[in-house]
Amino acid sequence: MTLFTPEDLLRYLYKESSHELTIAIERALKEDFTLRERLNELKVSVNQIDADKKLVAPRMEVVFKVLQYARETATEAASHS
Question: Which of 17, 46, 59, 74 is a plausible cystine mate for 11, CB 3.0–4.6 Å?
Answer without folding.
Answer: 17
